[in-house]
């Protein structure tokens, strides 16, 4: 009787080999002074998808490089502020209602300062990323963005999924690693992001000039065939793609033992599990990230992350989740 032994390369060996292939491709691009354009995910309607193209707000669509997106955002901010300033200056109804009211004379100057600040900021793949850097665009893909909020402070996961390489900036070539069909796959993307010609974006919002959310979102769009297909998905699917680990889903109802549920939640969080919550309420995002779980003064507190950029409008006594307080959780 004979048998054979097949040795499969370890993930590190596989990624190292692929990384070398990327570096060789980058060398050829630099030599020819060209940017990488992904032939498998072309800059056309096929990559946008039918569902997206049917929205009047999203057409026409252009594919922009990161520096173009940043400059466009700064210019749009300035134009919007200028229009608002002009409207307020000429609005007699406001003055008639309150003769003592005067518009902020420094409004335009402040906008100009912010505009110049944004333009002078160099874009990055990620730079000290936080959950509040994840903002939803036109896509209904909170099922993906909620898990991305969870990995924002998990450096080992984020850097594994999206390695920050020098060829991203000078060659426009991006490497994204996702766990698909039981094995790690490496996707090669270009860094061009689709955008409508208006102020609004169709991709995840680029906050503080960081592109990691938009690039990972683009990788998921490539896996699913186009951006329009991102309207359907689950947090379990996203977590598995990002970590390579199985997920557990637990339905919660009024009959559950609250004490037992809280102990389980505390245990999962303290052991480093990534957590998300899903609700059927139609007035809030259906998928939310769970960023912290703790007890304080006898109260059970859960810090929820919402990828929707709209402010929460209900009255709450707890302080808002702000940049300055983010280190508390």
Automatic annotation (TrEMBL):
<dbReference type="GO" id="GO:0004198">
    <property type="term" value="F:calcium-dependent cysteine-type endopeptidase activity"/>
</dbReference>
<feature type="domain" description="Calpain catalytic">
    <location>
        <begin position="35"/>
        <end position="266"/>
    </location>
</feature>
<comment type="similarity">
    <text>Belongs to the peptidase C2 family.</text>
</comment>
<dbReference type="Pfam" id="PF00648">
    <property type="entry name" value="Peptidase_C2"/>
</dbReference>
<protein>
    <recommendedName>
        <fullName>Calpain catalytic domain-containing protein</fullName>
    </recommendedName>
</protein>
<dbReference type="GO" id="GO:0005737">
    <property type="term" value="C:cytoplasm"/>
</dbReference>
<dbReference type="GO" id="GO:0006508">
    <property type="term" value="P:proteolysis"/>
</dbReference>
<dbReference type="InterPro" id="IPR038765">
    <property type="entry name" value="Papain-like_cys_pep_sf"/>
</dbReference>
<dbReference type="InterPro" id="IPR001300">
    <property type="entry name" value="Peptidase_C2_calpain_cat"/>
</dbReference>
<dbReference type="InterPro" id="IPR022684">
    <property type="entry name" value="Calpain_cysteine_protease"/>
</dbReference>
